[in-house]
Write a structure and sequence with these properties.
- This protein has 867 residues and is an alpha+beta fold.
- Helix content is 34%, strand content 21%.
- The strands form seven sheets. A nine-stranded mixed β-sheet has the order 3-2-4-5-1-6-7-8-9, with helices on both faces. A six-stranded mixed β-sheet has the order 27-32-31-30-29-34. Strands 10-11-14-12-13 form a five-stranded mixed β-sheet.
- A hairpin with a 2-residue loop joins strand 6 and strand 7.
- The relative contact order is 0.07.
- Mean pLDDT is 89; it is low at 1-6.
Length: 867
């Protein structure tokens, strides 16, 4: 609250107006509603002149297209801002500048109505005022704002009137100006809220009913000449779009409207905007608007899905409607994210999080608060209406932020998405949905997401979160719901595992059931990796390997229990659940014989190899056509997510749920590997089983987690080792000293959630590594996984991290752990708190004699040592 020690009124610069309002008070925000900016200027100028005479600090916020309101003067500080960079960027800039000027600054803002051209919605102007007005009040300022009458919805005007301390309507009629106080907080007089005619420096109340009726009726006729007056600017914009939608698509008005709607709905990336303008018609954009909740951007994930579907349906060479499942998705606009923050009063905390000193610490607090916030009533009502449309079909609520799935970065797996099984009463289903939204909004403050943004220089960029709400593709099997197949596909397979494969052919990574097992590294389970030019060839050999590296569990939705579940395929088979085994799997005869020997009658055990689906060339050819069609339209390799569901006649329907530009490093130039290396100079060598293209890097530091020692560590120690790796990783950040090219090598899977299968680091704890090596440890049951197409894969590619899985039991793989004996262990020198962990972790500074890491993607060989 502002100080009340000195209640002396402050002048408006107009003595007559001071008399009406009983002067201004420190802390007042004054909002003027006007017919023209010139009417506002007539009250700004005397206010500024009087403040200058009193030696006040004057701050002018300049952002509108209208002529400046405040003259150039050395005593006046002017801040020129651009609202087109977005709500958060603009609001943050204003907030920061107010903070810099401190207490008792007198502020003048350009007409807020001009922000509509940048934000396209009244709602965000209301949110801006709801953030800035209370902050100015707390800093004992006085601030002037203006709104053009008739340009804003009643809801926004009400929101601003409720927040401000003073609101005055200015009317211009017959060459005369009138001031009509609408709200004057904590002040009152018998004539205060009457309209007053301005006569020089005096203001005369209109005390007779005839003049008052004549004036106010005329003002109302001029400002309420259409029902559109009650609508948000956003809605009026789309009414205008509907009026030109049937015009010739080449007409200037039609093209201009497509461009305008793309810029307020689709995003800010010019490459994505060019794709949208090329492929989305005005009718398409109006269709998107009809399924939107709120306003703002629909986000990168939603844009990618919609663009991909439109590209395919526009393909004259193939009838994609005969194989593509339709969708009926909804989109929660990104403005809802800011509305949620403002409604709960968290903007001050968000501004604290934006500072370098509190980037992670304040985010932790904000993340926890965002998991338990309240939604505005209007938003809750629209959520309920959407759920009424879907009924009790399962839903997938997906993150769809502004920057997500763009050309600059995928943000793969950085934000949360959630399945809503969507069972129960309407009230229960609504609460389940809102809980999912809260978790997704909160995930914008996760450490992994913030590390990802900082690493790419995006920590100050606007990144509002939209949502894509999709009906889960699949079918019911009694109380279980799942698609038959789900997976990811890439149009360019940089990481082929054999020299006779064609990277241009693309690759799939597929599973039975929900696609979670295709996009995440799943402990103890293996999706099927398919090179589309050789779909039956696997990156392993032999029947035993086929059994070891096959899918054992399936992810599904249990509508009876109202939850997501992972269930073993053997359990489902024994329960008689009729999945599409004949189309996707082969009988596991050895296991069936074993079970019969144990007394089971007629056991049915399946190995999910997808061999029946892939043996027929139709499906691989169709997926390759799909990927290549999208690649040509994007003029760039693409990465998609999809499901496949078989109808009652056995026909496969593809549901394309996501498409984005593929983040890829390319193959680079050919690297020459030495044919022979003395054993004492060789660290490791392998054929195949690596990702990262052809590389040639001198290694300046090696971090080694000893597989044998790690196998003896307790679970608590394994988590401590993971945190220790994070500490060493932060030491590699350029801000913490010279960056060293570092190779991290250890047992099993980096980033696992199960310490028994590897080191449970978060990606933000290994993101500075140049090379990541996973070592198989058969005796400990720890096996790496070459995770093509997963979120982990995306992280490796985007950080330009080389990856290899060393299967040390294979003859083509050599690992010489004694190579590191020549280097002392620098662990405790870099991490003094790591005493006692030297037997688990060794840090070798190798800069004086750097081993070389070489990889040749053509020969599919990688080697590291003194070469």
């Amino acid at each position: 609250m502002h100080s009340t020690a000195n209640p002396q009124p402050v002048t408006t610069g107009l003595p007559g107006l001071d008399g009406i309002l009983d002067g201004l008070r420190i802390g007042d925000n004054v909002v003027w509603t006007v017919d023209a900016v010139e009417d506002y200027r007539a009250f700004v100028e005397p206010f500024v002149d009087a403040a200058l005479r009193e030696g006040r600090q004057i701050v002018y916020f300049r952002f509108a297209d209208h002529a400046p309101l405040v003259r150039d003067d050395a005593a006046i500080t002017r801040h020129d801002l651009d609202a087109c960079h977005g709500f958060e960027t603009f609001t943050s800039s204003v907030y920061e500048r107010i903070t810099q000027h401190g207490r008792e600054a007198f502020c003048v803002f350009d007409c807020l109505s001009d922000l509509l051209s940048a934000w396209a919605t009244d709602q965000m102007i209301g949110n801006f005022f709801q953030v800035i007005c209370p902050y100015l009040y707390r800093l004992d300022t006085i601030a002037y704002f203006a709104l053009l009458r008739g340009n804003h919805s009643f809801r926004t005007i009400a929101q601003i009137r409720q927040t401000t301390q003073v609101m005055v309507a200015l009317y211009a009629r017959d060459g005369r100006r009138h001031a009509h106080p609408i709200k004057v907080w904590q002040r009152h007089s018998p004539t205060m809220f009457l309209p007053h005619e301005m006569r020089g420096d005096t203001f005369v109340p209109i005390a007779n009913s005839y003049e008052a009726t004549s004036l106010l009726s005329d003002v109302r006729r001029r400002s309420v000449d259409s029902p559109r007056r009650r609508l948000d600017y956003w809605d009026r914009l789309f009414i205008e779009a509907e009026a030109v939608a049937d015009a010739d698509e080449d007409a200037p008005a039609h093209r201009a409207m497509v461009d305008k709607l793309c810029r307020v709905m689709i995003g800010q990336d010019e490459r994505v905007l060019a794709l949208a303008r090329r492929h989305l018609s005005l009718h398409d954009l109006l269709g998107i608007k009809s399924r939107m909740i709120g306003t703002g951007f629909i986000g990168g994930k939603a844009v990618g899905m919609l663009l991909a579907r439109k590209i395919l349906h526009s393909d004259d060479a193939f009838d994609w409607s005969s194989v593509l499942e339709p969708h009926d998705s909804f989109y929660v606009g990104s403005d809802a994210y800011y509305w949620y923050l403002v409604h709960n009063g968290w903007w001050d905390l968000l501004m604290r999080q934006k500072t370098p000193a509190h980037y992670f610490e304040a985010a932790t607090e904000l993340e926890q608060k965002m998991r338990h916030g309240r939604f505005p009533d209007e938003l809750v009502q629209t959520f309920q209406q959407m759920l009424e449309y879907f009924g009790q079909y399962p839903l997938l609520v997906r993150s769809s932020s502004l920057l997500e799935d763009g050309f600059g970065g995928a943000f793969a797996g950085k934000y949360e998405s959630h399945f809503c099984v969507n069972q129960g009463t309407p009230e229960q289903r609504l609460e389940q949905f809102m809980a999912a939204v809260r978790r997704i909004f909160a995930s914008t403050m996760s450490r992994d997401a913030l590390t990802y943004r900082r690493q790419r220089g995006l920590e100050q960029r606007e990144e509002p979160m939209g949502l894509l709400v999709q009906r889960v593709a699949g079918r019911y099997h009694e109380h279980l719901y799942l698609p038959d197949v789900a997976g990811v596909g890439v149009s360019y397979n940089t990481f082929v595992w054999s020299r006779d494969m064609d990277p241009q052919a693309g690759m799939l990574r597929i599973v039975m059931g929900l696609g979670t097992r295709a996009v995440d590294r799943v402990e103890g389970d293996y999706p099927c990796t398919v090179a589309l030019d050789q779909p039956l060839r696997r990156p392993y050999g032999g029947q035993e390997d086929m059994r070891r590296y096959s899918q054992r569990d399936v992810d599904l939705l249990n509508v009876e229990q109202n939850r997501f579940e992972s269930v073993s395929l053997l359990e489902l088979s024994r329960a008689g659940v009729d999945l599409a085994y004949e189309r996707l799997a082969v009988p596991d005869r050895p296991t069936e014989r074993l079970l019969r020997d144990r007394g089971e009658r007629d056991p049915r055990v399946w190995l999910v190899t997808f061999e029946p689906l892939l043996r027929d060339a139709a499906f691989p050819s169709l997926m390759q056509r799909l990927l290549k069609t999208l690649e040509r339209a994007y003029a760039y390799p693409v990465d998609v997510e999809f499901t496949v569901t078989f109808d009652d006649r056995g026909r496969a329907w593809i549901n394309l749920v996501q498409c984005r530009p593929l983040q890829t490093q390319g193959t680079r130039e050919r690297v020459q590997l030495p044919a022979q290396v003395p054993a004492d100079r060789l660290f490791f060598r392998t054929k195949g089983h690596f990702m990262g293209g052809s590389v040639q890097r001198p290694i300046q530091r090696v971090i080694w987690v000893d597989p044998t020692a790690y196998s003896t560590a307790t679970t608590e120690q394994r988590h401590a080792i993971a945190r220790l790796i994070g500490t060493l990783n932060r030491d590699l950040d350029g801000d913490n000293g010279p960056h060293r090219v570092t190779l991290l090598i250890g047992p099993g899977r980096w980033g696992t959630s199960t310490p028994a299968l590897g080191v449970p680091v978060r990606f933000s704890e290994i993101n500075n590594m140049a090379a990541l090596i996973e070592v198989a440890s058969r005796e400990a049951g720890i096996v790496p996984e070459l995770s093509y197409g997963t979120h982990f894969f995306q992280d490796l590619v985007e950080t330009n991290t080389f990856y290899a899985a060393l299967a040390v039991d294979r003859p083509e793989c050599v690992l010489n752990a004694s190579y590191l004996d020549r280097y002392p262990n620098q662990l405790t020198a870099l991490a003094p708190n790591a005493t006692g962990y030297e037997r688990f972790v060794k840090v070798c500074d190798t800069a004086d004699r750097p081993p070389q890491l070489l990889a040749d993607v053509v020969r599919q060989e990688a080697i590291c040592g003194e070469l």
